[in-house]
Design a protein that fits this description.
This protein is an all-alpha fold and about 170 residues long. The protein has 2 domains: about 70 residues, no CATH class; about 80 residues, no CATH class. About 65% of the residues lie in helices and about 0% in strands. The chain has 8 helices and no strands. The protein is elongated, with a radius of gyration of 17 Å.
Length: about 170
């Protein structure tokens, strides 16, 4: 049997991205469905996975916290510093997986948090450096790409939440 860890991590990541406004509620429902297929199971997860697209925006706020709790995963409240840091780590991991370019990562972090999130402030500064290249046209942003990648590695190595279910068996 395959490990449920990747599905738990994806559900956790989508939950934090949703709670901070990065993705829509239907993406969370899709992750819940994928988690069930992968072998994760709990009553609240089944209910979450059963949401239709029309219901997702209304039901995910109430269904997601208990589903994560039953699986031993963490729900980060909207606007919490821990949630913001989790978003930064999740986006960094996605950049390292090739889902975002270094420029996109720096831009999204800077756009979402400005220079206010100390964990990711270096990425906001690097986004400013990209802007300088755009305006003066001098040189290439390859060095900035390398610096963003190094920063993404640092963030991805930062402690993450548990990804194996730790809640009671379903």
């Amino acid at each position: 049997m395959l490990s449920t860890e990747p599905s738990a991590r994806e559900l956790q990541d989508r939950a934090v991205l949703w709670s901070m406004g990065e993705i829509c509620a239907t993406d969370v429902v899709t992750a819940a469905c994928d988690a069930l297929v992968a072998g994760l199971d709990s009553p609240a997860l089944r209910t979450l996975a059963a949401c239709t697209r029309a219901e997702a925006d209304y039901d995910v706020p109430d269904l997601l916290p208990p589903a994560l709790d039953e699986l031993g995963l963490i729900f980060h409240p909207v606007g919490s510093v821990a949630g913001q840091e989790a978003v930064a780590r999740t986006l960094a991991a996605r950049m390292l997986a090739g889902e975002l370019t270094p420029r996109e990562l720096a831009f999204r972090i800077h756009q979402r948090f400005g220079h206010e999130l100390s964990l990711a402030e270096r990425l906001a500064n690097l986004d400013d450096e990209y802007d300088l290249f755009q305006y003066d046209g001098d040189g290439t942003p390859a060095r900035v790409d390398a610096d963003v990648t190094a920063e993404a590695l640092r963030l991805a190595q930062h402690p993450r939440v548990p990804t194996e279910p730790t809640g009671p068996p379903a």
